[in-house]
Each structure stands twice: as structure tokens, then as C-alpha cells.
């Protein structure tokens, strides 16, 4: 019976989450450094290759550093703080070419906010002949709401209480 269910699932095609730009992993510890990949599962339409991916960085993310990709250029938009040391990345754009029949991950190493909750990353996927704006945000007052172009979300879970001495060799109390 289990084999039939797996076969039926395979025949039905990819899961709906693969049809969107999604964050992987979709969960991280609040206040941590985490590498989050924005997975592009397809182009904007049939035979419409992705040529640009722009990821907006939410307020509260202290730093965001993109992972380089062979064949792609990267542009980092920064906040307009007067003090250059206080400027932070507000968006990252990769430009290159990803054929519609392939997928890829576009990764950022980020210092996440200390507060638990959902971080929403609006993404614009530009293709050779079209564009998909993955920017819709779920309304908490409407659970189960179906979105056609949902923004990727990373759920921040509470950080475990820190025992300042636990990580120091020879320090017991």
C-alpha cells in the first residue's frame, strides 16, 4: 500500500512548494548566524529562463552576505546610513542565466534577529520574457489562505537559554 501511495505522489508531479521560490531551510534559531538558500524551481513560464533574482532583506537582519555563483554577478543594495559602518544589506541581486528546466539555490549567510517569529523575504524573479513577484504575505487573520505568489518565509524559533559557562572547557558549576 505504501508503495502505491509513493507512486501516486510521484505521478502527481512536484509538490506545490517546488513551484515557488522558497527559503531552505525554512526555520532557524533567532539570534543565530544561518545560511539560507532561496531555491528557484523553474523559470517564469515554459522555456523562460531566469536571468535575475532579487531578494529583499527584512529589517532586523544585521548582516547578509551572498554566496558567489559561477557565471552570475552579484549586486548588494545597502541602507543609506550616514555612518558607513552602520550600513546593512537591504537587498541582494544575482544576475546570470538559469534555464527553465533546471533549479538552483541562491544563498545568503545572515545574522538573524534575536526575536522569534516569521521573517519574510520578498523576491522578484526576472526571466527572459517575464517576471514573477514572490511578494505576497499571508494574513494571520486568515489561516489557510491560498497565495499564488507567496514570499519566502523563515520561521525564527526561540534561542535556547545560554549557559555562559557550558561551552568553556573545565568550567563546571
Provide key terms for this protein.
five-stranded antiparallel sheet, Immunoglobulin-like, mainly beta, 1 helix, globular
3D structure, described in words:
- The chain has one helix at 2-12; strands spanning 22-24, 27-29, 33-40, 50-56, 63-66, 73-78, 89-98, 104-111, 117-120, 123-127, 131-134, 153-157.
- The protein has 1 helix and 12 strands.
- Helices cover 6% and strands 39% of the residues.
- The termini are far apart.
- It has 173 residues and is mainly beta.
- The strands form 3 sheets. It has a 5-stranded antiparallel sheet, with no helix packed on it. Strands 1-3-8-5 form a 4-stranded antiparallel sheet, with no helix packed on it. It has a 3-stranded mixed sheet with strand order 2-12-9, with no helix packed on it.
Summarize the topology.
Elements lengths: L1 H11 L9 E3 L2 E3 L3 E8 L9 E7 L6 E4 L6 E6 L10 E10 L5 E8 L5 E4 L2 E5 L3 E4 L18 E5 L16
Parallel strand pairs: 2-12
Antiparallel strand pairs: 1-3, 3-8, 4-7, 4-10, 5-8, 6-7, 9-12, 10-11
